[in-house]
Backbone:
């Protein structure tokens, strides 16, 4: 492993067709041959994401177009599961999909480390490669191990979805505590508007944070929301999902949207619904990384 001369991260290293970007004890692993999917996000060698041993299709972290009801959901082979081209420039890995035959969308994904505290930037672009005006929102779908607590600042309006009642609000934050005995053995989800532009999931003393530009509720895709949490019928994973603004794209036009990922070991603080210590920890991480 050769350390980058760039002050804001490491050079992506390719081995057996798969890239790894390391920053001290943190590792982000990406596979161009599987839809440019993030296959691992590790802290001290331990992967926080699920693997294909849990589900052959729905594992790791990917990008989808939103809303799902228009584009057919996960059956987007060129965007979600097939080979992306890959290049490295400086300390950034760039990957580009083949066009989706139905929508004409082309996905571009760029991965890099952007600050000394270890936030990884995931920069997504969606290009309208068709000859028709399209409307779409970027949708990052990340599968983590079941258990723990997912939480985010509460935005406007009400939550909805069949497990919306399992989430609570405390200290201006929406909290979803994964309790398998309370979760139905079906496809479960809830939608909500967020605030401040972050969501976090904590499990086994490790916290995973996503930071992004907060968007007004009115800019969400139809029947979608800025935040979505999903649990599968087998109770083997949780999806921590965020969406960007619903955007009109003329032929050849693109949108760009960035999400910053953090993974940290928590100090000795209260890990429970409503914990002000947890809230402060997340806010401090995000604020510190912007200095």
Residues:
């Amino acid at each position: 492993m050769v350390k980058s001369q760039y002050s804001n991260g490491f050079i992506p290293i390719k081995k057996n067709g798969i890239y790894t970007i390391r920053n001290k004890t943190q590792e982000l692993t990406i596979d161009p041959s599987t839809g440019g999917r993030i296959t691992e996000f590790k802290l001290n060698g331990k992967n926080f994401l699920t693997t294909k041993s849990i589900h052959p299709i729905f594992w790791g972290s990917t990008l989808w177009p939103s809303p799902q009801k228009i584009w057919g959901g996960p059956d987007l082979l060129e965007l979600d599961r097939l080979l992306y081209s890959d290049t490295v420039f400086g300390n950034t890995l760039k990957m580009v999909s083949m066009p989706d035959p139905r929508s004409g969308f082309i996905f571009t994904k760029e991965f890099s480390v952007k600050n000394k505290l270890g936030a990884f930037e995931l920069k997504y672009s969606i290009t309208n490669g068709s000859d028709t005006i399209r409307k779409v929102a970027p949708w990052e779908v990340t599968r983590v191990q079941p258990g723990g607590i997912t939480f985010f600042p509460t935005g406007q309006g009400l939550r909805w979805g069949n497990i919306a009642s399992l989430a609570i609000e405390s200290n201006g934050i929406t909290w979803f505590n994964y309790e398998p005995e309370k979760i139905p053995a079906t496809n479960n989800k809830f939608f909500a508007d967020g605030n401040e532009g972050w969501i976090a999931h904590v499990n086994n003393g490790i916290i995973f944070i996503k930071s992004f530009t907060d968007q007004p509720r009115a800019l969400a895709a139809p029947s979608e929301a800025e935040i979505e949490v999903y649990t599968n019928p087998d109770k083997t994973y949780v999806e921590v999902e965020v969406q960007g603004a619903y955007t009109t794209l003329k032929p050849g036009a693109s949108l760009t949207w960035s999400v910053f990922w953090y993974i940290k070991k928590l100090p000795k603080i209260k890990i429970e619904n409503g914990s002000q210590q947890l809230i402060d920890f997340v806010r401090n991480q995000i604020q510190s990384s912007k200095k």
